[in-house]
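for the recovery benchmark. tokens below, seq after
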């Protein structure tokens, strides 16, 4: 009997030990949790998040908060199985495969750098979209971003070249530049007037056929926008493009003497492009939790992300408004200001 009892005790201890050891094993998952909620109309570290110089700007009651997701785990800091299981049982957290956030062919540092670039680009696009919505003109130029190796443009064009004319016709932005190059047959040359280091010169570049059959010269082009006044957006170390819509609304509020919120507390998430199109994002459930914690009454979300709101832990406690464009978002805020919320588009 004693030997049998000892065997059972040892077996139980070993089982507990193995279980504890298994729970402590690092696993390739990432936990997404509610993150920062930052009022774009407010301050961060004593300075306004959105600062306008060279144009009248205004401060109003209410808030337009961007919301974020914070991630735990990933390469170099993997969590254990116990932590992952606990997060899986949490109504406000999500457990994702590591490669969903950190692609296997990229380091954590590279992912962080990409997110920083995306944040910068989203801020520029937000300012442009806000000015477009408010009919404030600004200048654009088509600028060479990268020159690809083993393509006709290599050695002829350089990063930073401004594309002034193509085949004698002026180009104002990257869309016009791309259309001008594709208005020919593959193999035909392109005459391009570029501005480089303040000097203009004409170059000729050959074309080759792309995978889609279009003529290309082997460059990527970006729009360089020159605004009539300075708009600076400061959000600390936050990265990614998902705050674009809220940045655009924040800029509009700063420039509007009457403001957009009517004193209401609004949060939201969605990307933005210069034309004011609002794009979908991930982590909407976690962002809604952050918004609710900050006292938001309404949550603006891209139509593409509506399906993420249905299982949110706070659905029903905060009004979810579906938007596809910056104009729709501004219209929704007008309805909220006027108390006419019955017709608000909802997910």
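predicted aa per position
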């Amino acid at each position: 009997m004693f030997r049998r009892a000892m065997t059972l005790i040892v077996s139980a201890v070993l089982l507990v030990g193995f279980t504890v050891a298994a729970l402590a094993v690092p696993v390739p998952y990432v936990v997404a949790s509610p993150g920062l909620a930052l009022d774009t109309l407010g301050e961060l570290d004593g300075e306004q998040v959105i600062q306008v110089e060279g144009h009248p700007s205004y401060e109003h009651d209410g808030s337009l908060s961007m919301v974020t997701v914070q991630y735990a785990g990933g390469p170099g800091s993997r969590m254990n199985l116990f932590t992952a299981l606990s997060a899986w049982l949490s109504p406000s957290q999500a457990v994702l495969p590591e490669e969903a956030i950190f692609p296997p062919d990229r380091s954590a540092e590279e992912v962080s750098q990409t997110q920083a670039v995306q944040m910068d680009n989203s801020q520029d696009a937000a300012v442009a979209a806000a000015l477009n919505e408010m009919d404030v003109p600004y200048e654009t130029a088509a600028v060479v971003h990268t020159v690809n190796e083993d393509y006709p443009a290599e050695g002829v064009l350089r990063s930073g070249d401004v594309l002034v004319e193509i085949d004698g016709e002026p180009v104002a932005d990257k869309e016009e530049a791309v259309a001008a190059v594709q208005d020919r047959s593959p193999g035909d040359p392109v005459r391009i007037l570029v501005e480089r280091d303040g000097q203009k010169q004409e170059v000729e570049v050959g074309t080759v056929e792309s995978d889609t059959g279009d003529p290309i010269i082997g460059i990527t082009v970006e729009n360089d926008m020159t605004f009539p006044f300075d708009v600076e957006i400061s959000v600390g170390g936050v990265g990614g493009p998902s705050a674009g819509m809220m940045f655009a609304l924040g800029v509009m509020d700063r420039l509007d003497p009457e403001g957009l919120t009517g004193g209401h507390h609004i949060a939201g998430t969605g990307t933005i492009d210069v034309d004011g199109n609002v794009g979908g994002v991930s982590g909407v459930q976690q962002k809604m939790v952050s918004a609710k914690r900050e006292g938001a009454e309404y949550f603006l979300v891209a139509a593409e992300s509506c399906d993420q709101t249905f299982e949110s832990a706070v659905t029903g406690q905060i009004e979810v408004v579906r938007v596809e464009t910056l104009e729709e978002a501004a219209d929704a805020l007008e309805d909220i200001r006027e108390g006419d919320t019955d017709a608000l588009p909802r997910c």
